[in-house]
Amino acid sequence: MATVFIGVGSNISPGPNIDKALSSLAEYCSELQESTCYMSPGIAGAEGVFANLVVRACTALAPHELVATLKSIERACGRSPTQQTIDLDLLLYDDLNLHDDVVNVPREDIVRFAFVLKPLSELVPHERHPVLDRSYAELWAHSGLSDEALTPVPRDSLA
Questions:
Q1: Cα dihedral sign for 20, 89, 83, 52?
Q2: Per-residue model confidence as pLDDT tens digits over 97-139
Q3: Contact 88, 116 (CB under 8 A)
Q4: Which of 116, 138, 114, 115 is CA-nearest to residue 126?
């Protein structure tokens, strides 16, 4: 079994979409553990406010199978090229360092976005990034990223 970390984000009906996505994910993964859920503004032209969290899980799926499963779950939640209802990104797969047309781990977003690094540093503060060889707590502390735009919210309060 591999330990994986998955970024989860939604700006359209985030409560129901995140619930549906995590319920579907539980069919393929075990021992799901969620970080704090944060509301944050959209990035790179994405409009609205997003609910974001990171999930730690165990899976028997190979990396390419897991990414295909995540895309399938997104489609089942109504994601299309014109509507991003849910976003599921494989951030880490054990200590694997693999970058091809399908799998991109460790994902660069880990150190680029506060809404990814802060939740990851909460879940596993002392674990080390497989390439940067620094703990996630250390990466967060020295990231220069601000958590000002991150508002913690109880996931069960999302509409």
A1: positive
A2: 999 999 999 999 999 999 999 999 999 999 999 999 999 999 9
A3: no
A4: 138
Which residue do the tokens 């503004």 mark?
41
Write down the number of H helices and E strands in the chain: 5, 8
Task: Tell me the CA distances in angstroms from 119 to 58, 87, 155, one per residue in order.
Answer: 18, 16, 14
Closest CA to 116 of 78, 93, 95, 89: 89
What is the per-residue pLDDT across 12-27, written as a single tens digit (0 to 9) for each?
A: 999 999 999 999 999 9
Rounded Cα–Cα distance for residues 40 and 61 (Å): 31
Coil, helix or strand at residue 114: helix
